[in-house]
Structures are given as structure tokens and as C-alpha cells.
């Protein structure tokens, strides 16, 4: 395995610039294991010199059989790894996005959700709710950045993710029920029939769903909060909506 | 107003050490405004020299009438403020905890939830769901630390918060239904009657609810996830459970 010791090495420079390209870096054994389970081998696997001694790292390295492997001096590795105490393994993968037409099933649209933790948590929740398509409009945190990958906990590999999408144009081609979530004066989410395909729109942490996106949706829905409370964290709101949809679909399945 | 310019000033030193005491620092206009609306005047209000020029800061300062006011040179202020771009106002408040006996209504118990963002988001969700009592066991992020306050968005002032509580002892005095949330093999949350008082237990990000806490609960509940998905972020799970309870209670209220 090639060992890189210099900051001036061109491969190292490329890796460090990775976050804005069509490649992404998976940080740590958990994400790499999820990728190997669900997708396949990464393009390249990168270990730290001290990581070579970890049993978990060498087991993963063995599973990456055909992938190019690189070893970095620990100091260089720390510059690439996003976490403070990296176990010593990173994997470079091709980012999997799609430009396919709107799906027939349910999907989640994010309108300028800026916080990486929120975007990653919503991806994780969508996968757990059985929703496969997630569409990020402009102004969202990048789906394949290290913080979003970390919060997603591997959900990325179960999803079809679209980025930098014009949400209004997307919705015009969607045949199911589109629902913009708004802080007040929408229909109660509990009063809407969610047993068919639903496109949910969740908005920016401060401003909510933009007027333009809300106008493109067929319905506006509100989570009925306790008296005197104004809002929820957007990832909490998404969890409530997506699992209300899942609950209604489970009830319907049990009835038929 | 007294201006503090030196790092050696004893008041400044005390403020900097604040986070482990019975006092907490509210960072920024949003939290202070929520406190003024819901609780009253802070013990002390602290502004940065440049903050004095902001209209929002001077309006809040006026609302803090009887509170002691301090002005810090900008460099000192930045050492105290938790956010990267502080607007220039902090408030010192007495931490409001309770040792009262378990409530009769619903409550949320956190078992070693370590991430400050998760704890704060759960506090915010609990308040929005109409749950008033939150009980933090050992190993949780401190409820009154700056990151938890920020994620809580003012929910702290709507809640009765207990910290460093023996959860099993607390549950032994609770008369409602106690429900430990577990990743698998519990009853479906949708199959449990949540129309009466419920004590929910949510567990650590990695390990979940400890065996000891789960054994103290009357029931074990699981959120039914899509095939192949293992888990949710704990704050997302809490949102789903607390709003399933709220939905059931709203249905019951509509029926009676």
C-alpha cells in the first residue's frame, strides 16, 4: 500500500478538496460498513498509519478488496477526517445523485434547510419511514458533506437523493398529494388523508417554507402544537409528519 | 453602566465559570426575550460595547429595568458568548430546577442522552407537545449549558426540569404508564393506549435505554421502522412518540 507523508502530494491535495466534487469521503468504520453492505466497494480506501493496527480497520480493508488503498501519516489523516477522534479509516465514493423524473411514491422536499445536522437527520428519518426519494432545493446543506453523512448514519445509501432542484418545477411533475408544512393556519396533519403518495415540503430553520414553494403545493399542513408554542425543530417536525404518514399507511394495510 | 475591560476582573471570571453553577447564561436576544416573556427579569444583563448600538439590544436592555447591567469590551464579550456571531447581549439567570415528587401528568425521562443538540431539541419538542416535566438522568448533557439552551429555543422556560435523577427511583413513584423506547421487539407505539398520563424513557444515542431503566418501566415500545432500517436519531424518535401521544389525546378530546 502506498504511504503518503507529504502535504504537497497531489493525491492528498485532491482528497482535501473533495467535498465540493462529485466524490464524497465517508469518515469512520460505521459509514464504510453501511456502504459495503448496501452499495459495494468504494473507489478508494484511506487509512491512517496508526489505524492499520485496529482490528476493525483491517477487517474493513479486507472487505474493500478491489479498491485502491492508501495509507496516510497520522497528521495528514487528521487533516482529512471530519471527526475529532477518527478511528483511522476513510473511503472515497462516487456521489450517487439522480435527475430522474419525480417518483410515483412519497418523497421529501427540503427548502433551504441549512443546518447539516438537520438535513442528515431528515435523511435518516425518511429512510426509516420507508420514503425513498429526497429532493434538496437550493440553499440546503450539501447532502454529501461530512456532517450530513455523519448525521445520516448510512441512510444516504438507501435513498435516491436529488440536489439543487427547482422545487416548484419538480412539484409540477408530481402526481401525488403535495403538502407544504407551515407553522400556522394549515390543516392539521392528523386531518389529512396520507394513505396515498405524499410529497412533503419542509422549510428553512428560521423562515420556514418559502411562499413560492408553498404556492406550488396542493395543501398546507400544520402540526397542532400546545398552546403558546410556536415552532418545532425542522427535523423533529419532519419525523412527526413522516411517521404520521407511516401510521396511516400501516392502518390501511391492516384493514385490507 | 459599569464597563469591564480586563480579563482579571473578578465578575468576569465568575461569569466565565458560570456554566457549572446554579446560574446559567442566556446567549442572544431570542432567548432573553423568551425569558422576559415567560419568567421575568434576569439576575444580570451583559452587553458588548458594540452591542450597545443595536436597536434590538437597547430595547431588551430597557425591558430588563431592575436587573444589574454590565458592559464588556467586545473581546471579553466574545469569550463569554457561545455563538460565533453574538449579537451582543447575554443574561445571567438562576437555573430553575425542581426536586418535586413525580407529576401526575405525562413526562419525558432521558437516560444518558449525551448530545447537547438532542437534549435541547427534545426539550423543545416536549414543550410543543404539551408535556411539562422533563427528567434528566445521569450522563445527560447539562440542561442549562449554552448548546442545550440554544437548541431548546426558550422551551426551558415552559418546563419543569429535573437533573441528575435516579430514573428507576423516579419511576417507582410515578402512577401513570411508563414506556421505555427500545429499538426492537417492543410493542408498536401505535398499539399502545396513550390517552392517559405517560412517562416516556428515551436512551443514549449509541446504547439506547439502559437495561436498568427499561426494567423499571411497565412497557417497552418500538417505533415500527421500514424494513432494513435499524434506528432513528433519539430526538426524532422522541418527536414521533410525543406527538403520537398528542394525537391520541386530541382524538379522545374530540370524542368526549
From TrEMBL, chains A, B:
PANTHER family: RRNA METHYLTRANSFERASE 3, RRNA METHYLTRANSFERASE 3, MITOCHONDRIAL. One of its GO terms (molecular function) is RNA methyltransferase activity. The keyword Transferase applies. One of its GO terms (biological process) is methylation. It comes from Sulfurisoma sediminicola. Keywords: Methyltransferase, Transferase. This is TrmH family RNA methyltransferase. Residues 107-243 form the tRNA/rRNA methyltransferase SpoU type domain. The keyword Methyltransferase applies. It holds the Pfam family SpoU_methylase. CDD domains: SpoU-like_rRNA-MTase.
Amino acid at each position: 500500500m502506498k504511504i503518503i507523508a507529504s502535504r504537497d502530494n497531489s493525491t492528498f491535495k485532491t482528497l482535501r478538496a473533495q467535498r465540493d466534487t462529485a466524490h464524497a469521503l465517508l469518515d469512520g468504520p460505521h459509514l464504510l460498513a453501511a456502504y459495503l453492505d448496501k452499495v459495494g466497494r468504494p473507489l478508494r480506501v484511506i487509512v491512517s498509519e496508526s489505524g492499520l493496527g485496529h482490528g476493525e480497520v483491517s477487517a474493513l480493508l479486507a472487505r474493500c478488496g478491489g479498491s485502491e488503498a492508501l495509507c496516510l501519516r497520522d497528521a495528514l489523516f487528521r487533516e482529512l477526517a471530519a471527526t475529532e477522534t477518527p478511528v483511522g479509516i476513510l473511503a472515497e465514493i462516487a456521489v450517487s445523485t439522480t435527475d430522474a423524473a419525480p417518483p410515483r411514491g412519497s418523497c421529501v422536499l427540503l427548502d433551504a434547510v441549512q443546518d447539516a445536522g438537520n438535513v442528515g437527520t431528515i435523511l435518516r428519518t425518511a429512510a426509516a419511514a420507508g420514503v425513498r426519494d429526497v429532493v434538496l432545493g437550493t440553499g440546503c446543506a450539501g447532502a454529501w458533506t461530512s456532517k450530513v453523512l455523519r448525521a445520516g448514519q448510512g441512510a444516504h445509501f438507501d435513498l435516491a437523493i436529488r440536489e439543487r432542484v427547482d422545487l416548484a418545477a419538480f412539484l409540477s411533475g408530481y402526481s401525488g398529494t403535495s403538502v407544504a408544512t407551515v407553522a400556522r393556519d394549515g390543516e392539521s396533519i392528523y386531518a389529512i388523508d396520507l394513505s396515498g403518495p405524499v410529497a412533503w415540503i419542509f422549510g428553512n430553520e428560521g423562515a420556514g417554507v418559502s411562499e413560492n414553494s408553498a404556492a406550488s403545493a396542493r395543501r398546507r399542513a400544520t402540526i397542532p402544537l400546545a398552546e403558546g408554542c410556536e415552532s418545532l425543530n425542522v427535523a423533529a417536525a419532519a419525523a412527526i409528519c413522516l411517521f404520521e404518514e407511516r401510521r396511516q399507511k400501516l392502518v390501511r394495510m391492516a384493514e385490507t
